């Protein structure tokens, strides 16, 4: 009798404490769960073994990347439904150890073991990062982490990001009507780069340091539109090669230099301004003050820093924070998020005066949905370029992040700070957000 789905439904109900909000279809063709809901497809028993040997999000991630699990129906709706049961159970939710003290939960686990078959741990998918000590953030470990994420092929990133090649939150001038003809992803990314330049107050002849310069979009925009000289640094060899070619094609080699260099090794300051867009998430909490102090020392007195960074919600006990296991293993090894309040405090401890904080959380959800649409529209080519596992990683991580931004689980902020003169003058306008 084909009843694997019914058994899974009962087991998940015991483990989660409530019936799963999605349907389940198992490898034997059986189905169970609310009619009309998105369907979680369990393709084989190996998916269950992955969950048994790595309970929680990492086991689910391995099963998804390997293709042992799939979703039929709207991906965003499914992730939204699952968020409450898996990702948003709160700090008071039972740990696995606590749950296993419950006789009914232990019985459910025994049932899962019987259903999973021979107890052999499946090997992790090859896309999983091998990073046994991801929190050290040495120069070597950071290079390895950056390579894991960014050196997957510029052609793949062209599919996802489009012509702008900007891999950070866009800025939608009309977020209430993001589907209007003049509200393209490319225009929104252009508007974000221009917003950064205006916040920095860039003027012809100034020097800009772009930390984590990616494929060169910020450097090119600032040099072409504002007449500044730019040094862009990245740890990715592939990004640097791509950015240098773009700079040459724009005829800007006399004004832009792209280096493969750690920000900690930049010694040719002072700069008039520094942009750090989507880079500080890689720094690590233990090294964040060092990062802030290094950038402070590289700025001229009166110089400005624009720090564009993803933030998480604060926890009652910050010592319990752990890096998301899926993100850590498959997306950004060692990537750490911190609350925006901690970021502001660390910047000020380094000597900066923080002048403005702007949340653009909803903008990132719009951006991510555009990236997912681009990936899905050219899915076959993406798989050819990176393999099915890597393409599945990017689709899940971008869609899940879009839902997380929409549900206010994470945010993104532009923090504008200045290295004031010894006299205390900031050089900033009296009225906020005029950005002259």
Low-confidence stretches: 90-94
In total, the number of strands is 11
How much helix is in the residues? 40-55%
The biggest beta sheet is recorded as: 7 strands, mixed
Number of helices: 17
In spatial order, strands of the major sheet run 7-6-5-8-9-11-10
Classification by helices and strands: alpha/beta
Overall 3D geometry?
A: elongated
How much of the sequence is in beta strands? 15-25%
Radius of gyration: 23 Å
For the terminal residues, how far apart are their CA atoms?
A: 73 Å
On the 0-100 scale, what is the average pLDDT? 88
Q: Spell the H/E element sequence.
A: HEEEHHEHHHHHHEHEHEEHEHHEHHHE
Q: Which helices and strands occur, and which strands form pairs?
A:
Layout: H1 4-16, E1 23-25, E2 31-32, E3 39-42, H2 45-53, H3 57-66, E4 69-72, H4 75-87, H5 96-99, H6 103-116, H7 139-150, H8 154-161, H9 185-200, E5 207-211, H10 217-226, E6 229-234, H11 237-249, E7 256-260, E8 271-277, H12 288-298, E9 299-312, H13 325-331, H14 340-349, E10 353-359, H15 361-377, H16 379-386, H17 388-406, E11 410-418
Parallel strand pairs: 1-3, 5-6, 5-8, 6-7, 8-9
Antiparallel strand pairs: 1-2, 3-4, 9-11, 10-11
């Amino acid at each position: 009798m084909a009843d694997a789905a019914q058994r899974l439904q009962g087991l998940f109900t015991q483990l989660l404490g409530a019936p799963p909000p999605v349907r389940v279809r198992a490898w034997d063709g059986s189905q169970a769960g609310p009619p009309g809901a998105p369907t979680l497809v369990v393709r084989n028993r190996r998916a269950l073994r992955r969950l048994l040997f790595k309970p929680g999000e990492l086991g689910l991630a391995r099963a998804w990347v390997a293709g042992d699990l799939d979703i039929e129906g709207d991906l965003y709706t499914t992730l939204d439904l699952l968020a409450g049961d898996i990702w948003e159970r709160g700090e008071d939710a039972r740990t696995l150890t606590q749950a296993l003290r419950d006789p009914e939960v232990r019985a459910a686990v025994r049932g899962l073991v019987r259903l999973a078959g021979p107890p052999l741990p499946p090997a992790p998918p090859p896309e999983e990062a091998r990073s046994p000590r991801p929190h050290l953030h040495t120069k070597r470990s950071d290079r390895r982490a950056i390579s894991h994420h960014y050196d997957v092929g510029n052609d793949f990133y062209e599919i996802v990001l489009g012509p702008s090649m900007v891999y950070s939150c866009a800025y939608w001038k009309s977020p209430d009507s993001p589907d209007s003809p003049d509200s393209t992803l490319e225009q929104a990314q252009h508007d974000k780069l221009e917003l950064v330049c205006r916040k920095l107050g860039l003027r012809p002849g100034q020097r800009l340091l772009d930390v984590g310069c990616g494929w060169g979009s910020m450097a090119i925009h600032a040099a072409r539109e504002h007449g500044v000289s730019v040094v862009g640094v990245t740890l990715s060899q592939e990004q640097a090669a791509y950015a240098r070619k773009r700079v040459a094609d724009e005829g800007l080699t006399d004004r832009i230099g792209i280096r493969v260099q750690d920000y900690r090794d930049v010694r040719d300051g002072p700069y008039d301004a520094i942009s750090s867009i989507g880079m500080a998430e890689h720094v690590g909490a233990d090294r964040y003050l060092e990062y802030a102090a290094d950038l402070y020392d590289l700025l001229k007195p009166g110089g400005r820093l624009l720090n564009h960074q993803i933030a998480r919600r604060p926890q009652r006990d910050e010592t319990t924070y752990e890096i998301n296991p899926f993100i850590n293993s498959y997306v950004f090894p060692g990537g750490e998020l911190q609350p925006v309040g901690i970021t502001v405090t660390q910047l000020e401890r380094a000597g900066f005066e923080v002048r403005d904080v702007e949340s653009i959380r909803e903008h990132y959800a719009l951006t991510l949905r555009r990236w997912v649409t681009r990936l899905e529209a050219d899915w076959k080519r993406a798989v050819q370029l990176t393999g099915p596992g890597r393409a599945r990683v990017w689709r899940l991580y971008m869609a899940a992040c879009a839902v997380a931004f929409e549900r206010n689980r994470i945010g993104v902020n532009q923090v504008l700070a200045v290295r004031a003169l010894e006299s205390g003058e900031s050089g900033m306008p009296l009225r906020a957000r005029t950005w002259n």
